[in-house]
Amino acid sequence: MMQRTAVLTAALIALAAPVMADDEQVLQIKQAFEPATLTVATGASVVFVNADDVNHNLQQTTPEGAKTDLGVSKPGETMTMKFATAGVYLVNCQIHPRMKMKITAK
Ligand SMILES: [Cu+2]
């Protein structure tokens, strides 16, 4: 019983942790990323907001060329992408081939 309480307390503390107020935000709007380029601190997360009335996809290509697909984001949904190491990342939408942007982490 004591153990269970400890686990529950830890979970509540994790939930209460402040949301990073300095997360950058990118809009997916009119089938483009706004802004189209962005510089963030290495390790930062960027919140992508689908402000369009169509579905979008998010794919990240790291400076080393590794690709991660975050799946489909519906209108009004948000997705968070992390930029763990320094360098230039490509972010694109596989539904709309012209939708791409660069994010530099440093
Ligand atoms: Cu798209």
Structure write-up:
- This protein has 1 helix and 9 strands.
- Mean pLDDT is 87; it is low at 11-19.
- The chain has a 5-stranded mixed sheet, with no helix packed on it. A 4-stranded mixed sheet has the order 2-1-4-7, with no helix packed on it.
- β1 and β2 (32-34) form a beta hairpin.
- The chain is mostly beta strands.
- The protein has one helix at residues 2-16; strands at residues 24-29, 32-34, 37-40, 45-50, 56-61, 67-73, 78-82, 87-92, 100-105.
- It has one domain: Immunoglobulin-like (Sandwich).
- The longest helix has 15 residues, at 2-16.
- It binds copper (II) ion.
- Copper (II) ion binds at residues 31, 56-57, 93, 95-96, 99.
Give the helix/strand layout.
Elements: H1 2-16, E1 24-29, E2 32-34, E3 37-40, E4 45-50, E5 56-61, E6 67-73, E7 78-82, E8 87-92, E9 100-105
Parallel strand pairs: 1-4, 3-9
Antiparallel strand pairs: 1-2, 4-7, 5-6, 5-8, 8-9
The chain binds copper (II) ion (CU).
Note the main attributes of this structure:
five-stranded mixed β-sheet; 106 residues; binds copper (II) ion; globular; 1 helix; Immunoglobulin-like; single chain; 9 strands
What's the domain count? 1
The total count of helices amounts to 1
Ligands, deduplicated: copper (II) ion
Instruction: Please identify, by name, the CATH architecture.
Output: Sandwich
Query: Under the CATH scheme, which class?
Result: Mainly Beta
Can you describe this structure in just a few lines?
The chain is mainly beta. The chain is built from one helix and nine strands; from the N terminus they run αβββββββββ. The protein starts with a helix and ends with a strand.
